[in-house]
């Protein structure tokens, strides 16, 4: 209860959560409310915001911007959250193993981690698109790889520190199994860090998906995505700027809400963990 | 020092491995390279012959060693779409990207550090709140959208700056600012928190007790201590700028490495993709290596 009240007092967390809630609701119910995202009407193209029958107006082909944008939210969130979620689980496991076992295994893992960590997500996604072709698959691959590595890196660092602590040494001396020490004594101390960090990486993933779709290497038409909508709309900026403003504002709001939630959660954490997070965000 | 040497050697080995991975990924991909050059009426035998003449039917390790051999002799092959010599293209593209990248790096530190210092000096005032909020927004706004807003505002509406292309310094302003936006925001954030951290350290109290002026403590001692991690990690900014340049160069029609790589991937022009992909992998790896060396040298605890 106390923790809940503290969370409610945290402005960043509250504002971020409210924006996130609105976006998630739009993503879940929007496509059902606003109808078919692919339905064209060439005579009703370039309608501005507030046109009757099409809430956000229409694009060049007369398709409903509201239907397309809300479906785009769904794709963006699906890719960003599910893949980062998976990355969090994998990254935490890899980090726990490397940090606790040490030795050669750790040497190999951390070498790979350091090497991959430095690569920008968008470059990895473009390289993946160069070999497996355009679409959501290279985005998913790149987000998965880079985020797993980034989370493993921080978790490993935390585990190195924690495994020197008295309570772990005592547990070892008490003859507990390695598995039990990792799951009962070490993991609970690193999972909050991995969680907060993941919220930042969701933001990075949203941006990468949008950017890749923007240049044409991400989600392929007819599947709508926010980045692709911004890109299509830019040719009609003078005619009806809403075609790229609406998806642009949505991407901005999504990233902002996730970053605010991340910042808010960080402040609720143990101060010692905050420095680890700051260090992780230098990229 | 010995651990640093080990890092350098291992990184170079990983660079070799990843160059092979990228090379193999591009060559072994399902996409049909013959589609780019041969007409739709070409028979299966024609396509097979073309692949044979291009050396694409050889084992991948053989292809890799041939390619690397040619690369070191300066022969980068030709583009599939317009037959241009890649070595002739590369010089210009690299030069353009260097101009844009270097300008962005200057902006990242030249704007980010002073703003971060001002925010830390005026801590908790409206100036600080303004700078901090702007940096949160700067990290959240996707740069391709920022680019469109900037184009709409400064070139479509106000007509001050050109929206795309390359020429004098006027053409550099918008892409350089957009490319550096996130780096500036991050540098502001890092500078502010490092300055505040250092102001609470014992050495500041000691210097105050010794009678040094606040100004001297702030600009000489605290600033120097705060800058070390930020400057030493500059190599990481290289990777970030390379990543975003792929998008920003494409939007502004800036004829650099990022633009040509993205276009080549879209057209499946694999010889072009291959060279520029390998080039960027090299640049990013060297940037990261520089960061890890810089960080080790700047931190006496790690310097053994």
Helix content of chain B: over 70%
Q: Structural class of the secondary structure composition of chain A?
A: mainly alpha
How much β-strand is present in the residues of chain B? under 5%
The structural class of chain B is mainly alpha
Number of strands of chain A: 0
The counted number of beta strands of chain B is: 0
Q: Helical residue percent of chain A?
A: over 70%
What percent strand of chain A?
A: under 5%
Rg of chain A, rounded, reads: 22 Å
The helix tally of chain B amounts to 13
**Are there runs of chain B of 5+ residues with pLDDT below 50, and where?**
none
Biggest chain contact? A-B, 48 and 54 residues
Uncertain residue segments of chain A: none
> What sort of overall outline of chain B do the alpha carbons produce when their principal axes are compared?
flat
Characterise this structure.
The complex is a heterodimer of chains A (283) and B (304). By secondary structure, chain A is an all-alpha fold. Chain A contains eleven helices and no strands. Chain B has 13 helices and no strands. The longest helix of chain B is centred in the middle third of the chain and has 36 residues, at 86-121. In chain B, α5 runs antiparallel to α6 (126-140) and α7 (143-157) crosses α11 (234-252). The model of chain B has no long low-confidence stretch (mean pLDDT 82). Chains A and B meet through α4, α5, α8, α9 and α10 of A and α1, α6, α7, α8 and α11 of B.
């Amino acid at each position: 209860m106390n923790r809940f009240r503290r969370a409610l007092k945290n402005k960043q967390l509250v504002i971020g959560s409210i924006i996130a809630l609105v976006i998630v609701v739009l993503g879940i119910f929007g496509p059902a409310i606003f109808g078919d995202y692919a339905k064209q009407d060439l005579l009703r193209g370039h309608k501005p915001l507030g046109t009757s029958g099409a809430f956000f107006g229409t694009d060049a082909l007369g398709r409903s911007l509201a239907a397309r944008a809300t479906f785009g939210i769904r794709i963006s969130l699906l890719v960003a959250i599910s893949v980062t979620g998976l990355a969090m689980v994998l990254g935490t496991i890899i980090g726990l193993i490397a940090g606790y076992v040490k030795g050669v295994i750790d040497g190999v893992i951390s070498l790979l981690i350091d090497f991959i960590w430095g690569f920008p997500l968008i470059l990895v996604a473009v390289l993946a698109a160069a070999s497996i072709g355009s679409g959501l698959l290279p985005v998913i691959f790149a987000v998965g790889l880079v985020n797993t590595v980034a989370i493993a890196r921080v978790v490993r660092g935390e585990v190195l520190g924690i495994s020197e602590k008295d309570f772990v040494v005592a547990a070892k001396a008490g003859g507990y199994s390695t598995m039990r020490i990792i799951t009962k004594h070490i993991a609970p101390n690193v999972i909050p860090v991995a969680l907060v960090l993941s919220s930042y990486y969701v933001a990075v993933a949203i941006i990468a998906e949008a950017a890749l779709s923007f240049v044409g290497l991400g989600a392929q038409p007819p599947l709508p995505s926010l980045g692709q909508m911004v890109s299509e709309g830019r040719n009609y900026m003078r005619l009806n700027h809403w075609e790229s403003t609406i998806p642009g504002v949505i991407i901005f709001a999504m990233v902002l809400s996730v970053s605010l939630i991340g910042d808010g959660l960080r402040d609720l954490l143990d101060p010692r963990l905050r420095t680890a997070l700051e260090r992780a965000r230098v990229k | 020092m010995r651990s640093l040497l080990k890092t350098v050697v291992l990184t170079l080995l990983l660079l070799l491995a990843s160059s092979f991975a990228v090379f193999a990924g591009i060559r072994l991909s399902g996409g049909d390279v013959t589609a780019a050059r041969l007409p739709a009426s070409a028979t299966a035998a024609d396509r097979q012959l073309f692949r044979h003449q291009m050396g694409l039917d050889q084992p991948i390790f053989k292809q890799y060693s041939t390619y690397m051999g040619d690369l070191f002799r300066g022969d980068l092959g030709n583009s599939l779409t317009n037959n241009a010599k890649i070595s002739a293209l590369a010089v210009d593209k690299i030069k353009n990207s260097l101009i844009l990248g270097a300008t962005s790096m200057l902006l990242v530190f030249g704007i980010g550090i002073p703003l971060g210092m001002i925010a830390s000096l005026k801590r908790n005032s409206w100036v600080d709140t303004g700078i901090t909020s702007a940096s949160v927004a700067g990290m959240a706004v996707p740069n391709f959208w920022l680019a469109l807003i900037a184009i709409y505002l400064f070139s479509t509406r106000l007509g001050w700056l050109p929206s795309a292309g390359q020429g004098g310094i006027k053409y550099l302003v918008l892409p350089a600012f957009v490319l550096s936006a996130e780096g500036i925001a991050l540098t502001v954030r890092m500078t502010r928190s490092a300055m505040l951290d250092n102001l609470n350290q014992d050495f500041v109290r000691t210097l105050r007790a010794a009678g040094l002026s606040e100004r001297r403590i702030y600009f000489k001692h605290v600033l120097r201590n705060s800058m070390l991690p930020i400057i030493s990690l500059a190599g990481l900014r290289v990777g970030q700028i390379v990543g975003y340049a792929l998008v920003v160069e494409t939007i502004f029609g800036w004829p650099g490495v990022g633009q040509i790589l993205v276009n080549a991937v879209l057209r499946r022009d694999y010889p072009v993709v291959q060279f520029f992909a390998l080039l960027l992998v090299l640049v990013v790896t060297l940037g990261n290596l520089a960061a890890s060396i810089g960080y080790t040298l700047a931190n006496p605890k790690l310097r053994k």
